[in-house]
Each structure stands twice: as C-alpha cells, then as structure tokens.
C-alpha cells in the first residue's frame, strides 16, 4: 500500500517511525515542507493553502492510497476539507491524540503542549470535551520548541530550560495534571527528555494512536518497503535528522527529492 505522510518539516518523521513499526513493509511517501516551517505560527488559511497543494500532489502524482496528516496545525487547518475532497482515507492527529490521552489519564486532568496555531484553534480542548465532557483541559503554546528541535544540535541545558518553562505554565493552570499531549509532531523528538525530567506524567505521543487507526486501512503485505522523501529546502540538514531518527532505512530503496514550489506554479518562498 502507498502511504503519504505530510508535515512542515522533520516532526512528521516521528509519525513515520511509528507507522513503520506498526504497519511494516509499505510504500511510504513523505513530504516535509520546511521552507514554510513552522506552520504553527501562520494563519490557518495560509497553512491550508500549503497542505491542500501537498495533499493533491501526493494524491494525483504519487498515487497514494492513504494520507496521514502528520502535523497538528495542518490537521486543524485541513483535515475535514481533505476528508471530503479525497477519495482515500485521511488520518489526522487531533482525534487520535485526544483518545489516547483519555486512555492514559487516571484523573482526566489533561494538559496540551502545542504550537500557537493549534492552541488558539482549541481543537484539542473541543475534541477532549466532546469525548469526555467531565475532563479538565489546559493548554500552553510552545513556539520556541519547533525552532530548537529543527536544529541538529541543542545543548541539554537549553532543552531542560525550555521544557520546564512551559511545564510550569501548564502546572500553574492546573496542578492536578497527570497527562500531557505532545500536540506537535516535532515534540516527541524530545520525548525522552520530557520523561526524564517529569517521569510521573503520562506524555502522550498521538502517533501511537494514529498508527493504530491507519492499520485499519492497510492490508498485510510481505514485500520490500520503499521510502520517498520530498523536501523543500536543502538535503544536508534533513539527511542528518533522517539518519538520527530512522537510522535503519534501507538506502537501496530510499530516495530524497527536492520539491520546487515555483516550478509547479506556486510561489513556495511566500511565508
């Protein structure tokens, strides 16, 4: 089966990793739109314009059978529209993340760490309340996380300071929080750090439930996996992240390609 995965950068690789672990050998086509990163700081209408173009490219030219929107802000901006437009299954991040958080929480006091766009949309707040009206939800925007995580090297002290700064703001809103949704696909890259500094908290990576839901659409296949990566900036930094996060990719069936927005009649430099 041919599975498309789209994100604004490297965060979606955390979702791709989980998909590979759960779905096994499939044809994976990943699109990382780093030239427009971070999506979470842009108006949702602008994010939808990017996502619409990417999704149609993957659907029409790469002939994908399933689309995973591996970005929370992109899910907020485009999930319901793409569900209507495309004649293939579309899986987003918000509903799976909310469901998993409710499964893990012991007291239904849930925090959300996400981009500014996702927090302002209140998508997690609304979905959690829809699934469990009695739950308590607080949110914190972390606009600095994506920029830090996209760097190839960040000092441990800098990570620690950023994590505790935003955790403190969540805790001040609700001291009973026992579960936190990592509401941006970049954030699970630091999951080991979250768990190290705050081990009593259930840190929820929505990709776990995304993979479970995607599995419903994917037939079992016994063949060699293939990987195609489309990126919108240079290969060097992306390749470093790819080697760190997915070190066991079979290079003989892996391709990295540059997607040029301008050549396709769209001004990809527009921020």
UniProtKB/TrEMBL annotation:
Pathway: Cell wall biogenesis; peptidoglycan biosynthesis. GO terms for molecular function: glutamate racemase activity. It comes from the Bacteria. The active site is at residues 71, 184. It is an enzyme of class 5 (isomerase). One of its GO terms (biological process) is peptidoglycan biosynthetic process. Its EC number is 5.1.1.3. PROSITE patterns: ASP_GLU_RACEMASE_1. Keywords: Cell shape, Cell wall biogenesis/degradation, Isomerase, Peptidoglycan synthesis. Substrate binds at residues 7-8, 39-40, 72-73, 185-186. It catalyses: L-glutamate = D-glutamate. InterPro entries: Asp/Glu/hydantoin_racemase, Asp/Glu_race, Asp/Glu_racemase_AS_1, Glu_race. Gene3D superfamilies: 3.40.50.1860. Provides the (R)-glutamate required for cell wall biosynthesis. NCBIfam families: glut_race (TIGR00067). Belongs to the aspartate/glutamate racemases family. This is Glutamate racemase.
């Amino acid at each position: 089966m041919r599975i498309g995965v789209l994100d604004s950068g490297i965060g979606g690789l955390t979702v791709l990793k989980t998909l590979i672990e759960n779905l096994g050998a499939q044809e994976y086509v990943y699109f990382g739109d780093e030239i427009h990163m971070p999506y979470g700081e842009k108006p949702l209408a602008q994010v939808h314009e990017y996502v619409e173009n990417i999704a149609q490219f993957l659907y029409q030219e790469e002939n994908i059978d399933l689309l995973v929107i591996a970005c929370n802000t992109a899910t907020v901006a485009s999930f319901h529209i793409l569900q209507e437009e495309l004649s293939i299954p579309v899986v987003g991040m918000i509903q799976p993340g909310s469901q998993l958080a409710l499964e893990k929480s012991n007291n239904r006091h849930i925090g959300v760490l996400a981009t500014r766009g996702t927090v302002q949309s209140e998508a997690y707040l609304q979905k959690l309340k829809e699934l469990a009206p009695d739950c308590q939800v607080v949110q914190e925007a972390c606009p600095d996380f994506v920029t830090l995580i996209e760097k190839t090297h960040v000092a441990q002290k800098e990570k620690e300071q950023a994590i505790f700064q935003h955790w403190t703001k969540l805790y001040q809103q609700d001291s009973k929080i026992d579960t936190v949704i990592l509401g941006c696909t970049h954030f699970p890259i630091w999951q080991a750090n979250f768990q190290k500094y705050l081990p009593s908290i259930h840190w929820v990576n929505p990709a776990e439930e995304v993979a479970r839901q995607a599995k419903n659409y994917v037939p079992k296949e016994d063949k060699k996996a293939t990987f195609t990566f489309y990126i919108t900036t240079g290969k060097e930094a992306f390749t470093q992240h790819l080697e760190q996060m997915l070190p066991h990719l079979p290079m003989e069936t892996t391709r990295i390609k540059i997607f040029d927005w301008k050549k396709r009649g769209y001004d990809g430099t527009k921020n």
